């Protein structure tokens, strides 16, 4: 009889909800009146409906106002440190297909309704039902309909999920914003859109998070002001959360104006959109505090594989070999990012260095592969390289210039740079008019399952499909055997480096800049910003 490993015992305890993961956070008196003013260049993409929202900032707001069954402990280094939220405990069948959750009692919505199992079932039934009408939404992108077979109410405060397949990252899915629970009184079987002057009608979520959305103003599809107020019905109010009663988001046109706002004291903190140059300039400034953390944000180059020239894997590999990741990381990000040679970030289960086989600025390989495809110094491979221009991703224009320089230094490639604002960029993606384009990824949940599929993700519209890779991916998500999962992801990467439908570029670290007396920030692998933990100290 084999003995269980320490990790195996840990995993069983974690999956069954019998392991308590305590946080070192100590509440310090809930709800100081002084607001936290947050500066950003971002904007909610479309809506605060979890059936549709699939952007970082939209998910950030949802995290503050909504509730999920479980969450990831602040400070987690793995993303798998799950703690109870609206579920207080859980257990799972041996084959990973049946999951039972015991729900928290005594939780009320602002309208007086009491949270129970019917709300869990309605929320997931709604998310799945809306997938055909919202194919670009998060539940569609994450495959809720493929994963979840049905939800059964076992008791007032007990619910069961039947899955279509063994799915080891299920707790990760439940912790992500697409699994935010909704209030049926505000959540019809249709997408809920922004409603001017009525923040409650602008989102279907049940206000059972630490905050409620009290103000949301937009002009021409861009956010002008967002205000969050402490939720008087929050289930964890007696523990001292949220530590600050009000959070106000102030919107800047670009990273330069955001830096000025921080330095002038017009905002108390900024996250994600302070440039590397600015954060390094500010790190020794006594009027601000710089926070550093682990990053899981990646960017990658996508090819349109349905037509020439990128219907030929040799051409895609040739371009990949000519890229110079180090130049981008050194020049644009001032070593605050690092070259990425797998779609799975370093430190995460399944990461490899497979794309290093193609090299960086490996012009001999580029020239050889393009010669096979009929290109040379007098008949160069010419294509458009697209980047987004509205600040959705960091330093996009600067990156694009470095990519162009490296590619053209091969002597056999000619690049025309083109750009579009984020809304147009996505339309171009969906219309499949871009030859090659840079895209980015913040994790929906911190597991290789949420990265590996990017090589063939249908919503990227690369028109690349590979049955072998997809079968390996399905095997990896159906087991908790970490050794086997690593082997399967390595095989996926090996095929990816041969096909180059998507080419990893870099992984960023994380940083924030705040007023010196801001406390309670956790920059962990989830990339979440938990505003209810943040406060202004003495």
Please tell me about this protein's structure.
- The chain has 538 residues and is α+β, with helices and mostly antiparallel strands.
- The protein has two domains: 26-250 and 511-536, 3-Layer(aba) Sandwich (D-Maltodextrin-Binding Protein, domain 2), CATH 3.40.190; 298-508, Roll (Dipeptide-binding Protein, domain 3).
- The protein is built from 16 helices and 21 strands.
- The strands form five sheets. It has a seven-stranded mixed β-sheet with strand order 8-9-10-1-11-19-12, with helices on one face. The chain has a six-stranded mixed β-sheet with strand order 14-18-13-17-15-16.
- A hairpin with a 2-residue loop joins strand 6 (148-155) and strand 7.
- Helix 9 packs antiparallel against helix 11 (363-372).
- The N and C termini lie far apart (58 Å).
Q: Unreliable runs, pLDDT <50, ≥5 residues? A: 1-29
Q: How many DSSP H or I helices?
A: 16
If you average the pLDDT, what whole number results?
91
Looking at CATH, the homologous superfamily of the largest domain is Periplasmic binding protein-like II
Q: Supply the helix-strand structural class.
A: alpha+beta
